[in-house]
Amino acid sequence: MNARPKKSFGQHFLHEKRYIERIVSAVSPKPDDFVVEIGPGEGALTLPLLAAAGKLTAIELDTDLIPDLTARAASVGELSIIHSDVLKVDFTALAHRHGVERLRIAGNLPYYISSPILFHCVEHAAAIQDMHFMLQKEVVDRMAAEPGSKVYGRLSVMLQLACRVEPLFTVPPGAFRPPPKVDSAVVRLIPLSPEQRHDADPARVHAVVKAAFAQRRKTLSNALRQLMDSDAIKTADVDPKARAETLAPLDFVRLAKVLAGT
User: Fold this and answer.
1) Is residue 1 part of a domain?
2) Is the pLDDT of residue 62 over 90?
3) Is residue 197 situated within a structural domain?
4) Which amino acid positions bind S-adenosyl-L-methionine, per UniProt (predicted)?
5) Residue 1 pLDDT > 70, yes or no?
6) Are 70 and 1 in contact (CB under 8 A)?
7) Cα(91)–Cα(134) distance, rounded to whole angstroms?
8) Tell me: the pLDDT tens digits for 100-114?
């Protein structure tokens, strides 16, 4: 199949075999796994993942791609396609509906909505075993960035509080049709176990992180002044004169707990 990529959907179809094989090897699906692919496109990953797992659920918004993909998958395994915007798919309900404890998610994500998709998946982390995504390399760098890095920010903190982030390998523009203008990268996300997760109110953590990084050059006492004062920040064992980019993810958790008590 050689579908015409649609700019409105941010479509860049992966076609180079060696990178397809590396991604499938990284996912390493087993017959008992419940695999969900986001944005199967032309099926470059879909068919080998389906062959390994025996069954697969794909989420596709582009109706023009579904008939051909369904026909090609018929001789490979059991493919179920959800025609929907992925941001409207309840992954927790999907797992419950199929009687599985946790899903395995994979996909070549549209770059223009990659961050919303990542945050959406994190909301359902308890129902997800792992995630393997192809993203803009710049986004993967931000996801895995450590405190003090120039690209460390809100995405880094929120993802690292929910998952172990493992960058795997880079994929060049020529592996896609049409080639994007930037390098891509594959990343593995493994949701933290209940014992590893923080116990602060997620809404307050999000509020603190969002405010702290809204203006990176401001000190925390200025950035968080609408939420808490300097004394409250000190109570969390955090320096009010520090900037958000220097704080570890768990520092934001302590600040959220102080916020809950103010």
Assistant:
1) no
2) no
3) no
4) 12, 14, 39, 60, 85, 108
5) no
6) no
7) 19
8) 999 999 999 888 889
pTM of the model: 0.91
Burial string for 176-207 (b: 16+ CB within 10 Å, else e) reads bbeebeeebbbbbbebeeeeebbebeeebbbb
12: annotated binding-site residue?
yes
d(CA 203, CA 197): 15
Of 157, 191, 225, the residue at which a domain comes to its end is 191
pLDDT of 92: 97
Q: Which of 28-37, 98-107, 136-145, 177-186 has the lowest mean pLDDT?
A: 177-186
Q: Which domain holds residue 225?
A: 202-261
CB-CB contact of 69 with 103 (8 Å): no
Q: Does residue 27 fall inside a structural domain?
A: yes
Residue 240 near residue 234, CB atoms below 8 Å: yes
- Do the annotations mark residue 60 as ligand-binding? yes
Residues 100, 213, single domain; the answer is: no
108 annotated binding-site participant? yes
Do 208 and 174 share a structural domain? no
Same domain, 68 and 156: yes
- For 148, the token pair is 């003090």
According to the annotation, is 220 in a ligand binding site? no
Q: Is 61 annotated as a binding residue?
A: no
- Find the helix packing angle between 114-123 and 137-144, rounded to 10°: 40
**Residue 85 annotated as binding?**
yes
Number of domains in the chain: 2
- Each residue's pLDDT tens digit, 142-167: 999 999 999 999 999 999 999 999 99
191, 226, 246 — which closes off a domain?
191
Strand-pair partners of 81: 58
Least confident residue range of 2-6, 151-155, 212-216:
2-6
